[in-house]
Specification:
By secondary structure, the chain is mostly helical. It has one domain. Helices cover 78% and strands 0% of the residues. The longest helix has 43 residues. The protein is globular.
Amino acid sequence: MNGRILNGRILPVIRIGTALLAVAAIVAQLVTLANANKLDVVNFFSFFTIQSNLIGIAVLVLAARSGPRSRTLERWRGAASVYLTVTFVVVIALLQNVDVGLQLVWVDVTLHKIVPVVIVADYLLDPPGTRFSIRDGLTWLIYPLAWLAYTLIRGLLVSWYPYPFLDPDHAGGYGAVAVTSLVILVAGAALCGLYVWLGNRLGGDRVGGDRGAAAAT
C-alpha cells in the first residue's frame, strides 16, 4: 500500500476511531460502576491502564491532525508506546483472571489489547520524524516512577492498591512488591531503549530526507 495514502488518509481515521473507542470504553466502565454503586473516581483513575490509555488517546488525537508533528508530540508517541506495551504485557503475564475493575469484556479488550496494539503499530508504520537520544528514552520512565510512588504512598494511606502485585498483603510483603516493581521497571527501561532504536531506525530516512531538503533550499 502506498505510504502516502496510508499516512494521509487511513492512519488519521484509525487514530480518531481508536481514540473514540477508548473514550467510549472508559465512559462505559464509569457508568457501569456508578450504576452498581461501586464507583470510586479516584481509585478508577489511579489504574495505570486508565492513565496510559488517556495518554494514548491524547497522542492519537494530536497525531491525527494534518501538518508536521512537533518533537514533543513525537516523544510522547514513543512514551505512549512504552506505557501501553507495559499495560498489554502485564495484563497477560500478571493479571490473568484477576479483577482489575473492568467488568465489561469489550472494555477490557479495548483498553488492554486494542489500544496498545494500535499505538505501537501507529508508531512503527508512521515513525517519528525526529531522532531520539537515550536521554529522551530515559525521560519516558519519569511518569511510571511517579505513578509507582503515588500508588504505594496512597496505598499506605487508604489501604487500596490497583493491582494485587503491588499490595504487600497479597504479594507476600514489601520485598516481593519491590522485586516485581523492579522487574517491571527494568523491562520498561529496555522497552524505552527498543522504541528509541526503532524510532531512529525506521524514521531515519525521513529525518535524512528532511535535512537534505532543508540543505537544498
